[in-house]
């Protein structure tokens, strides 16, 4: 079985990333967005390029948002946690991880991966159960970030948290009530952020394993943010503080 990636930018990123092996590029006559770049990238790697009707690609991916470009690629493989930690240590940088508990919406997961990659996270760790699988929608929404940022899948996130803490990493849970405002917290050391599900937030057991709970101050009438927005705000507060500490 092969995975499908669609849309000009995700397809181009997948071809350039050098990770999963591309198997076949499917393209319609109507495709215009970055067509020459995508075809050139595929041909330079010896990837077969085949012409298809737009309605064929609609059926293949299940929607019409493919921009006339679909890439068959080898199945996605999760990174092992130990490998993730080794890559962090080898980087010589301060640890920066994101742990996701119960993110089930593919659009949220894709957007979170895009923000995590842009913020410079060493990797994202997701729960094996109660989580969205890696799909073409996730890849499309991530705008190709899935091909760059390591994604790890673990059964027991509480055990992951304890393993990170044993490595000297501080673990901060993103919560609402009873949490310390994120803007008043020091976030420039080795750390991991933990984000809960879209509806229920962090599970109690996982909360108890965090070193500290943080909240994003809310000034309006709503009590919470979309999961991907909360992740973006929190990730880039870490980036802001780290850049400030280097000045």
| Model regions low in confidence, pLDDT < 50 over at least 5 residues | none
How much beta, percentage-wise? 15-25%
Domain count, please report it: 2
Can you identify the CATH superfamily of the largest domain? SPOUT methyltransferase, trefoil knot domain
Major sheet description: 7 strands, parallel
The CATH architecture classification of the largest domain is 3-Layer(aba) Sandwich
Cα radius of gyration in angstroms: 19 Å
- Give the CATH topology of the largest domain: Alpha/beta knot
Mean pLDDT over all positions: 91
| Total E-strand runs | 11
**Broad shape:** elongated
Widest sheet: strand ordering: 7-6-5-10-8-11-9
Give the termini separation.
49 Å
Number of helices: 9
CATH class of the largest domain: Alpha Beta
């Amino acid at each position: 079985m092969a995975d499908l990636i669609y849309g000009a930018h995700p397809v181009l990123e997948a071809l350039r990333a050098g990770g999963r092996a591309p198997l076949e590029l499917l393209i319609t006559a109507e495709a215009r967005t970055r067509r020459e770049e995508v075809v050139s990238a595929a041909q330079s790697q010896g990837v077969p390029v085949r012409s298809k009707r737009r309605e064929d690609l609609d059926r293949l991916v299940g929607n019409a948002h493919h921009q006339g470009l679909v890439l068959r690629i080898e199945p996605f493989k999760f990174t092992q946690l130990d490998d993730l930690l080794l890559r962090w240590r080898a980087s010589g940088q301060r640890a920066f991880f994101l742990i996701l508990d119960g993110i089930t919406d593919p659009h949220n997961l894709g957007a979170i991966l895009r923000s995590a990659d842009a913020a410079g996270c060493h990797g994202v760790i997701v729960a094996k159960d109660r989580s969205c699988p890696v799909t073409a929608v996730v890849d499309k929404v991530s705008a190709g970030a899935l091909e760059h940022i390591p994604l790890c899948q673990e059964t027991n996130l509480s055990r992951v948290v304890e393993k990170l803490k044993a490595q000297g990493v501080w673990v901060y849970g993103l919560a609402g009530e009873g949490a310390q405002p994120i803007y008043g917290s020091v976030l420039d050391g080795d750390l991991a952020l933990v984000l809960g599900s879209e509806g229920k937030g962090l599970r109690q057991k996982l909360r108890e394993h965090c070193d500290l709970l943080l909240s994003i101050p809310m000034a309006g009438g709503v009590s919470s943010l979309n999961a991907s927005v909360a992740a973006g705000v929190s990730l880039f507060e870490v980036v802001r503080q780290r850049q400030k500490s280097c000045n």
